Amino acid sequence: MVSRFRAHWRRVIFQSSRWDEKAFDVCLIVAIALSVVVVMLESIPTLNPDLRRVLYFIEWGITILFTLEYILRLYVSLRPLRYARSFFGVVDLLAILPTYLDLLLPGAHYLALLRVLRVLRIFRVLKLVKYIGEANVLMHAMRSSARKIAVFIFGVLVLVLILGSLMYLIEGAEHGFTSIPKSVYWAIVTLTTVGYGDISPVTPLGQFFASIIMITGYGIIAVPTAIVTAEMTNLSRDPIAERESEDPVCPACGWQDHDHDAAYCKVCGGHLPVKFQPK
Predict the structure, then answer these.
(1) How many other C-beta atoms lie within 10 A of the C-beta of residue 148?
(2) How far is Cα 141 from Cα 233, in angstroms, rounded to an integer?
(3) Which of 80, 119, 210, 264 has a CB 3.0–4.6 Å from the CB of 74, allowing a cystine?
(4) What are phi and psi of 227, to 5 degrees?
(5) What are phi and psi of 231, to 5 degrees?
(6) Which residues neighbour 33 within 8 Å (Cβ) at sequence distance 6 or greater?
(7) Bridge partners, residue 264, by sequence
(8) Nearest to 164 by CA among 179, 181, 182, 183
C-alpha cells in the first residue's frame, strides 16, 4: 500500500504526460504566481490593514502548502538527498524558508519572491524542454567568454579610476566632486551612459572631458556583446563545414601542412585520409 502510494505520487509529481500530472504542475504554477503577487502587494505601505491581514494568512497558507509538497517530494523520491541537492530541490527549499525566517528576522519573507524560480517547471509542462538546449548554448558562450569579459571589466575599472581622479582635479569639491570615490562614481555613471544627473561638471574643461567619456561609453558598452556574440557564432558553426575546411594530416609522419585537396603527403609520400564527405 505504501509503495503504491509512493509510486503514484512519484509519477504525478515528477512526470508531466497524463492529465493529472499536468494538472498538478499547473496548480503548482498558479500557487507560485499567487504567492509572488501576495508578497509584492504586502510591500505597498498604504495597503489597507484588513487586506494586509488577509494577504498575511494567504501567504502562510501557501507556505504550509509548499512545505507539505516539499516533504512529499522528498518522501516519494527514489533518491531524496540527490533531489534535495539538485537545482529544483534547492529552489523548492528556498521557496519556503523566507516565511519561516520572518518569524526571527522581520522582512525576510520578501525573499519569498525567489519562488518565481519554480515557474521554470513550465518548460516541462508545456513541452519546451527542447529550448533548454538553446539556453545551454548561451551559457556555454558566456563561460567561454568569461575570461575575456573579466579582462574587459578590469580594464574598465582601471579606466574609471583614472577618469574619476582627473575629474576630481578638474572640478574639485566646490562643484560636487568632493572626493575621488565620488568622482569615480560619477565616471561609472557617465561611462555607462546612465546619467543620474546628481553630479555634473561645471567648468568648460570638465564638460569637454565629460563629453569624451560619454562618447567613449557607447563604444565600451558594445564590447561584451561582441565578445559573447563571437563565441555564439563559433558554437553555431556547422561541424561538417569545419571538418571540410581542415587540412589533412598524414597518419604516417604526422605532417599537417598540406593543401586542402592533397591526396599524398608531401613529406613521406603516404596516403592522406579521405576528406569527410557529408551524406
Answers:
(1) 16
(2) 9
(3) 80
(4) -65, -50
(5) -65, -40
(6) 119
(7) 271
(8) 183
Nearest residue to 274 (alpha-carbon basis) of 242, 241, 251, 253? 251
Per-residue pLDDT tens for 135-180? 667 777 778 888 888 888 898 899 999 999 999 989 888 888 989 9
pTM flag (> 0.90): no
In the chain, count H helices and then E strands: 11, 0
Q: Which of 208, 206, 182 is nearest to 196 (CA)?
A: 182
Angle value at C-alpha 183, between 181 and 185, nearest 5 degrees: 70
Question: What are the cell numbers at 159?
Answer: 579606466
The third-level CATH classification (topology) of the domain covering 2-128 is: Four Helix Bundle (Hemerythrin (Met), subunit A) (1.20.120)
Grid coordinates representing 156? 574598465
- 16 phi and psi angles, rounded to 5 deg: -150, 50
DSSP state of 79: S
Q: Which CATH class is domain 143-235?
A: mainly alpha
Angle at 90 between CA 8 and CA 30, to 5 degrees: 60
User: Cβ neighbours of residue 81 under 8 Å, at least 6 residues apart?
Assistant: none
d(CA 85, CA 93): 10
User: Coil, strand or helix: which one is 44?
Assistant: coil
In this structure, the chain runs to a length of 279
pLDDT digits (tens, 9 = 90+) for 24-69: 888 888 888 888 888 888 888 888 888 988 988 988 898 899 899 8
Q: Kindly compute the dihedral angle of the four CA atoms of residues 61, 65, 68, 74, in this order, to the nearest 10 degrees.
A: -140
Domain map (residue ranges) of the chain: 2-128, 143-235, 240-279
Q: Of 203, 165, 207, 214, which is closest to residue 185 (Cα–Cα)?
A: 165
180 vs 182: CA distance, rounded Å: 5
